[in-house]
Amino acid sequence: MSLSIVLLWVVSVSLLAHSQPNPRGYLLDCGAGKQSGSTVGELKYITDEGFTSVGNITTLKTPDLVPILSTLRYFPDTSARKYCYVIPVVKGGKYLVRTTYYYGGFDGGEEPPVFDQLVEGTKWGVVNTTEDYANGLSSYYEIFVRAMGKSLRFCLARNKHTKSSPFVSAIELEYMDNSLYNSTNFNKFALTTVARNYFGNQGDSISFPDDKFNRLWQPFNDTNPTVESHSNITSSRFWNVPPAKAFSHAITTSRGKTLQIQWPTMLLPSAKYYISLYFQDNRTPSPYSWRVFDVAVNGETFYRGLNVTTSGVTVYSTQWPLSGQTQIALTPANGMPVGPVINAGEIMQILPLAGSTLNRDVEVMEDLARTFNDPPSDWSGDPCLPTENSWTGVACSYGEHVRVVALNLTGMGMSGSLPSQVSNLTALNHL
Ligand SMILES: *[C@@H]1O[C@H](CO)[C@@H](O)[C@H](O)[C@H]1NC(C)=O
Ligand SMILES: *[C@@H]1O[C@H](CO)[C@@H](O)[C@H](O)[C@H]1NC(C)=O
Ligand SMILES: *[C@@H]1O[C@H](CO)[C@@H](O)[C@H](O)[C@H]1NC(C)=O
Ligand SMILES: *[C@@H]1O[C@H](CO)[C@@H](O)[C@H](O)[C@H]1NC(C)=O
Ligand SMILES: *[C@@H]1O[C@H](CO)[C@@H](O)[C@H](O)[C@H]1NC(C)=O
Ligand SMILES: *[C@@H]1O[C@H](CO)[C@@H](O)[C@H](O)[C@H]1NC(C)=O
Ligand SMILES: *[C@@H]1O[C@H](CO)[C@@H](O)[C@H](O)[C@H]1NC(C)=O
Ligand SMILES: *[C@@H]1O[C@H](CO)[C@@H](O)[C@H](O)[C@H]1NC(C)=O
């Protein structure tokens, strides 16, 4: 499921704002060509040239688009099994990968193509921006993933619904503190963002530098009463370091009543989810500024007897099964003089990783790819995974270790003797 954002039109940015250094990572403005890239707010994007060797670039004709949406890279080669970016990372680091898509009719069509996105050897999900595009919005997707090697491979691929060329407008890679979402085993799982909201507000989305990791927090408001906060928070004291701005308002209800919120608003596919909720008593700090309530999700106790003070608190669940609608209910303890409050929440789907090809085989295959003058365009990313997106001419075994077992180099413009690297593919039994 995609997240949409009104990131369409150029907004004027105060020239007086002191420019902050970018968060650690890469911000790629896809299709920017040889230009240096562009600036959005305080963030500087660089061109994606050099991070991929495939695809064509184009500039949209729509006037006044935000610079990162005005160019894109698309992948017309229908024979390639995937189109990959290889981005340098800190091995073992935890990263947020955010991909942004704005179709803009670049191929002369009416509807955006639907295609897959992959991260390392795992199918991350389907990119379907049809509805957002029809509503005049760009779309983005987020995944939190551990970098297993010295580079992170992000790819697009066709699927059976893909009618025209897959494309991408921007790719962002942000380094996360190790403490973020640390109850998740990132060696086996990734987290894909379903919703990240701050409640009781209708303003702009919160991002860098308010969120130092450049996560996006969208406003959420419903028909419940809202309150403004009268005390500051120190976000570093919270698990997952939510931005202080996310606590400026809260959703509440009157004394003695249960606060019910339909959040997130969309219907969720049946799966396990990481849920993190953020609370703060909004009153001026005093010995009496605290309130106790129970937190329930779809009628099941999520946290009993939560004591929320003016310094605030996070409660989270590592793996919570959800399906369809989600309802959060906050029920006050007996005798509380004020109703419950909630300030912000995050919900991410837990995505099992598909693993990766044995690293030694990957290194040999990448080495081999470099000896070709013109390697097949899908010879980048994981050679064997996902299974339907393995490299052209490469056959693999999918046992405990994923290995390259056969190569068919016919028609790849090879001449003369075989490169010596091939002898290092120790599971190879067919050439
Ligand atoms: C993409 O670029 C290649 C080479 O740069 C060119 O030969 C090809 O015609 C282009 N394809 C499209 C659909 O523009
Ligand atoms: C893409 O999304 C649109 C709008 O939600 C939907 O009608 C369409 O069936 C989807 N396409 C695919 C291939 O899933
Ligand atoms: C996770 O991070 C928190 C700080 O945000 C820390 O207190 C806790 O010990 C960490 N847990 C693990 C398992 O690393
Ligand atoms: C939230 O929505 C309610 C009703 O829909 C409205 O009365 C209130 O002003 C909104 N609050 C904010 C902070 O936008
Ligand atoms: C919050 O912090 C700001 C800046 O540090 C300070 O000016 C303000 O008085 C504080 N507000 C409260 C209610 O503590
Ligand atoms: C809630 O926390 C406050 C501040 O730590 C404390 O004074 C109060 O007694 C606590 N209330 C309950 C019911 O534990
Ligand atoms: C090897 O690839 C060529 C060209 O794609 C194909 O014609 C041939 O049938 C393949 N051979 C095997 C054994 O799969
Ligand atoms: C093959 O592997 C050996 C040992 O890991 C290494 O020293 C050698 O450089 C490799 N050769 C090639 C051609 O990759």
Architecture overview:
The chain has helices at 67-70, 130-134, 359-371; strands at 3-5, 25-29, 38-40, 43-47, 56-59, 71-74, 83-88, 94-101, 115-119, 122-127, 138-146, 151-157, 167-168, 170-176, 189-199, 218-220, 226-228, 249-252, 259-262, 268-279, 290-297, 300-309, 313-324, 327-332, 341-342, 344-352, 394-398, 402-407. 5% of the residues lie in helices and 39% in strands. It starts with a strand and ends in a 24-residue tail after the last strand. The chain is mainly β and 431 residues long. 45% of the residues are buried. The longest helix has 13 residues, at 359-371. Strands 1, 2, 3, 4, 8, 11, 14, 15, 16, 20, 23 and 26 form a twelve-stranded mixed beta sheet that branches. The radius of gyration is 24 Å and the shape is elongated. It is built from three helices and 28 strands. The chain folds into three domains: 3-176, Sandwich (Jelly Rolls); 192-352, Galactose-binding lectin (Jelly Rolls, Sandwich), CATH 2.60.120; 359-424, no CATH class. Bound molecules: 2-acetamido-2-deoxy-beta-D-glucopyranose (8 copies).
